Every structure is written in structure tokens, then in C-alpha cells.
Amino acid sequence: MRTDIGFEIHEQLNTATKLYCDCPTDYRNAKPNTNICEVCVGIPGAKPFPVNQVAIDSVIEIALMLNCEIVREPIYIQRKHYDYPDLPSGYQRTSLPIGKNGNLLGVGIWEVHLEEDPGKYDPTSGKVDYNRSGVPLVEIVTAPDLHTPEEARNFLKELTKVLSYTGKVRSEGGTMRMDTNISIEGGARVEIKNINSIKGAYRALKFEITRQKNLMKKGRAVKRETRAFLEAQMITKTMRVKEEAEDYRYIPDPDLPPLLISQEKIAKIREIMPEAPHLKLERFMKQYEIGRDDAWAITSEIEMADSFEEVCKSMPEIDPKYIASFFRHLIKKKLNYDNISFRESGLTSEDIKTIISKLNSKEITSSGAELAIRGVIEEKKPASVIINEKGLTRIEEEDVVVKAIEEAIKENPQAVSDYLGGKTEALNYIVGQVMKKTRGRADPAEVLKALKARLK
Amino acid sequence: MGGINAVQRTSTYLEKVEEKDPEINSFIEINPKAIKEAKQVDEGKRKGRLAGLVVGVKSNINVKGLRATCASKTLENYISPYDATVIERVKAEGGVIIGMTNMDEFACGSSGETSYFGETNNPAALGRIPGGSSSGSAAAVAAGFCDVALGSDTGGSIRNPSSHCGVVGLKPTYGLVPRYGLIDLAMSLDQIGPISRDVYTLALMLEVIAGYNPKEATTLKVSKKEYSKHLNSDISGYKIGVAKEFEKVTDPRIMKIIKKSLKVLESRGAEIKEIFLPNLEKGLPTYYLCVFVEFFSATRKFDGRRYGYRIEEVCGKEVLRRILLGKYISQKEYSGKYYKRALQFRSLIKEELLKALEGVDVIVGPTVPKLPHKLGTEIEDPLVMYGYDLLTVPANLAGIPAGVIKSGEVGGVPVGLQIQAKPLDEQKILNVMFALENS
Does the active-site annotation cover B157? Predict the structure, then answer.
């Protein structure tokens, strides 16, 4: 049965001030109701300031990154009316499309537009914090071009990557909110609201497809309705059926003249906007002759991709394949393990160049390189300092290594007899023990060779 | 205003208010700091073009520390936490705010009778309505309770009561005066403007409050003008447009008075030209559809969570009517039929007016097509009430400036002459008013 899935995705824009006033956009760390003014609290008589230009430019850039056409006709800001405690004026301002007819990974992007976030209502205490009220959002509406929860998840991951490449969305994470719609052949279209993560979207879709297919199996109709995703229970639940559809009574906001986007503005943004991640990946594979997996790992973050290119450029004597492998196996692995981004790690291209050049000249071993990366990230010091301080330079004196090998053999008779009994992998364990004793400064390949000779 | 003793002036007004306002009911609240503010003027701590002038403010304009009730129970206890931009400007020029004036509830009315705080009497024709919705502002000026007042005009709310009370009033070009701090009736039509007893003070107040506000998306980026300095009663060579359509819809007794003033203008060298406004009468339905929809939107914040009362639960009949009609016609299934058509007609009326103004300097005619009714007369049909606005709404729909000055009287009831001009041609309007004032 054919299944069609589409999304409406909201992400907060990374602006210093709110959309229609000068209040700071910090609503996470600031005390409740401190970053507010008459405008974002909707005090009677207050009027919106002219629309935040940084926010408009950000939406244009995101739309361009998603291959959208930018609308050249006047773009009205609409008032969307509904009644909720977090909405100080009883309406939310939302622009008509700024970008239209785009695509990403073959998924159509119907429109990209600008919105404002409402405040935050806590139903338990009945209190509203307006610090978030007026924070700018970009909304991206896709065509129903996705067909499975897995496809949806991949698409959302790629979209997140594109948004983070622009640097125009908030980077602290957890700010993405989305609605999804799903229709299975033979049933009506169902909308699911209240999804706050990619994982949530995946789970909601999984649940919903099973629910709808079960209904169909029993010969019951899938109704057109809006459902809410309950994250904790991982289920969806009816919010309202079609007959109760809300009427938002949209009107163009009389307080705001329509936006007009010039050709010059579009050209200017096009000039400075980054290369899209999937294009960068293709280019890296071609230009540096590296594999897809390496290119994928490196382009997962624009800062890492930029660093890779810088290192390649300033070390022409080193094979880019080697550098790519270093990024993927030494850096990316460590980042994944710590669950941090390249930017958060504090690693610089200088650090990476130092480590690669010492590795290349055999001054340090690959284990030493790993320890150096860890040291830079954890102690926030340059790689050259870490290597010196930790004494990570490769051990040249053979007797030190020989001594370590002898100790390791003596201390691990079980592993030795396992190896001698035919379990070759037991030798790796002994190598590890030797590396530990030398604090990574011995060359593991040399150690292996020596061990093999010793235990013959 | 050198030589004026502000404290003396303010206390004289305050005494008059205390003595006579119980009959007029033009103020909702008196500024307890008025004397203190006047004292600062006398001590030279507050200076400027309005130094010592006593100003009344319509109750839909925010003045920090005073109540902006909009004459509604909905905002009965709403104390403004900030100054509207016009108030900042008035204060910066040394104006002394005497208090908040009465008005039709949420500016929804043309008679001054719908205030939660009671109707306002017409000081120039006691027992009759003062007009509205800036009823208290016009009445306070007419009664001599202040030098000048601020009103707001969405479809005639400055001009209509100025006409009935025999004072001068002006609705500026849309976007000339900041609306920041004005509580909305219909955002695309609302403008703040002055009401006074003489043209000079009117021009002075206009130049103080007019001008670009970078923190507001709909104000115009125009340089400041000194209207009072450039007042000139020599209007020889002015081309004055008069439309036949005015006569068709106006009480002949009023037309007779207006025609006399036209003769005066002609005698001062102005040239009368006939213009055509075939869509004049379409203005009214167009205007009301726009107002209903925008007012519905504007009142959504009065949901009972922040300001004490949910507007629908405590407001008067007319306010409720407008909210419900706005809610009805802005439904998804009707919006194309009503609101969008209204916007189309609005463009048509604007084009017609601007085209008519191409060949003339100003358009002159009556302000209100009928005489103000007597207080206490029950007007059940809202369309009869809306009829008062027939000649004033086109200026709002087109965004053009329009002023009103007393033309004469019909049986002791003042009749105001309306002067409309091209956008930003306030000076010409003021000059025509100045010419009439000096003849």
C-alpha cells in the first residue's frame, strides 16, 4: 500500500533580537518574563517594529539552500487567530511564502516562510513566560514525497544538516518542532502534531502506520483528523476531527507593510551562502578522490568540512585519502563517543596539522595521535603542548619496548597460551597491554612484529 | 508661549473642569500630577513649543500612569505602563496633560453616547450629542477645559465631534503621526490628530506629534514640518474642488451654510471647480466591513486573561455588534466575499479621490450630512448611526488628510466645513482653515 508522508517543520532562527521588537531572544537562561516589552507582550496600543531584517535574510538563505524560488511579489504578513494563553494578542503573525517550489534529496519543498514563536504556557502553574514570545521561526513545508519512516528520518537528518550549515538557526538543539501528515492508499489524510525531534517523528510515523493498517485490516475507515503525538507513551491520539477544523480567520496584518525582496538582495545572499552538504559531499569524493563514507563523515558538519579542506590545502605532500581517514577514524569517532560537535570540541586545523605531520614523520604513533586529540578536547590546549606535556613522542629505545613485552607476557599467561593454542586474536590483547605500559608511545605495528617473533 | 504661568493656567482649567464637567462629562480621569507638571514648566525644567499648554488626551491613547480605558468596562482598571509616541513628544515639548477624555466605547460610535462612563454633552449645543468617537476631546476643547486635545480618527472620529462642537480638528495623512500607543480600532485606518479652538494651536500640536517613528512599520519617512510657522491665510489661486454628490446626501440646511463659506473662500481668491465622486456612497459599506474585520482581530487580546474582563462579556451593544460581524465575515468561507471585496472597493475609492485631487488643491464640503440628534433619542438602527460617517470615511479609506472648521450654525447647532487634500498636504488644509478663521 502506497504511503505518502509530508512535514511542516519549525526551527528557531539564530537572531540576537526578536522579530518585531528589540528584546533579546534568550528565553532559556533568562529569568521568566525578563526579556519582554510592550510589543512582545501585546500591551494595548503597542505596534510591531519593522520586521527584523536579519530574520528575513536568514529565511531567504534557508530557502535558497533548499533550491526554492524567492517570491518577488509583495509578501504579506498574516494574522492567524486562535485563543491560547501563550498568545498575548490572540493571533500569531506568519508570513506568506518567502521561498517556493524547492527540493532536497528529491523531496519537494512547497514553501518556506517566517513566523513568530508564542510564549510558553505552563498548564500546571497556569503561568505564562513571554521571554519566547516573538522569537523568529522559519517554517518549512514539504510535499508528501516521503514513503517510509526511515526515509522520513533520513530526510529530516539531511534537513537539519542543511539548516546548521547556514548557521542561521539556533544551534543549542531541541528547538525543532514539526507536524507531519500521512496518507495510506485507501485512507484519509491524517495530521500529527506535537513532534519535537527526529526520533519522535520516526516513532510517531511507525505507530501511525501500524494503527492505520490495522484499521484497514478490520475493514474500518481511516478518518480525516488531526492527532497529537504523546512522546512519553509513543502513541498518537485524536485532537480533532475534520468537522471541528479550526478557522484561523487569516487577514493581512494592517500594522505591517508587505515585504519586498529585491533581486540584489537575493544575489547578495546567494554569494555568501554556503555550499549545500550533499553537494559538498559529491565534490569531496571527486576532488579529493575519497570514499563516500569518509566524505559523509567529514561533511556532517560544515566546520569539520572546512577544516578538512584547509588541512588538505596546507599539506599538499600528504594524500587526502590519509587525511580523510584521519578525520573519520580519529576525530569523528572521538566526537561521536563524546557526543559533541566538531565546533564544540575546540579542535582547530592547526592542532590537526600538528598531529598529522608528527604522525607522518613517525614522531608519534596512531595511539599517540588518539591521546593527543583527547588531550586537546579535554584540556583545551594546543596539540603541540599536549604532545610535549604528556610525553607522547614515540619511543625509539628498543629496550624499553622489549621490557614492556616481557612484562606483558609474564602477566598474561592465559592470553599467551590461548595464542599459542591457535587463538590469534589473543595476541591483540597482549599488544594492548604493551601499549598501555608504554602509554601509547610504542608503535603498535612494531610491537606486534616483535611479539610474534618472541612467541614463535 | 513665553510669559504664560503654567500653574495658573492649569489650575484655572482644573477649576473649570471641576465646576462644569459634571454637566458635560468630557473627562474620565484627571491627571493628579497636572499641577506638578505645570510647575516644572514654570521652573524652566520643561521647555518646548507646547510649554504650558494644557492638553486633553483621548482615553485610547496610553499615558504612563493614567488609565487608558477606551471608555469600556473591559479596560476599566488598565493603567498604562508606557507613553504613546505622541505623548512622549507632547511631554518633550512642555505640554501639560490635564486628563483622559471620554469617548465612544473603543472608538466605536459617532455620537459620544456609548461610553461605559456615561454620555458626553455638547457644550456648543447643550442637550445634543457632541459627536464621536472623540467626544470628550472635542467637548473639553469646546467647553474651555483645555487648550488642545488629542483624538483619534478612524472614519471621522476627530472631524465629526469637531463639527458638532464647533471647534477645529484635523485627521492627518495615514502614517504621518505615529500610532504607537494608540489602542486599535482598525489599524489600517486609525490616525491620531489634534482638536483645538484655533488654527494656530492646531498647527502647533500637529507639528509636535507628526513625524517618522523608526520603531513602527507604518509611519512615513518624511521630514518634520513647521506648520504653525508657515500658516498663511492668503489662498488666492487655490483650486477648490466641490462634488455634486455632497449635495445629494446632505441636509439642505447644512449645505446652505457650507455654500456661504465657499463664497467666502472664493472672495479670497480661491477658484471653485466641480469634481466627481460617483462612488462616494460606496465608502460607508466598504469602511464598515474593513472596521469589523480589523476590530475583531484587534480585540482578541481582551480575552479576560490579562485585563480582567473578556470583552464580549462586558462591552456595550455596538462594540459587540462589530466584534460579532467581524468574526462572521472573516470566516474562511466568507472572507473572499466580504473582506476581499471591501479591500477592492477601498482601492477604487482611494483612486477616485486621488484622481479628483489631481486637478485641485483641496476638496471642500460638509463634514457630517445631518445635524446631531438630541441626547436620549434612541437610535435602534445601526445604519442610521453609521450614516453620520458618510462624508468622513473616504479620507480614511484613501489615507488622505482632512480638517474641519466651523462654517456656521443651524438653529444654534454648529456646522463644520471639511477640507480634504492630497497625502501630506496638511499645510494647505491648515491655510484654508486659517483663511476662514480670519474672515
Answer: yes
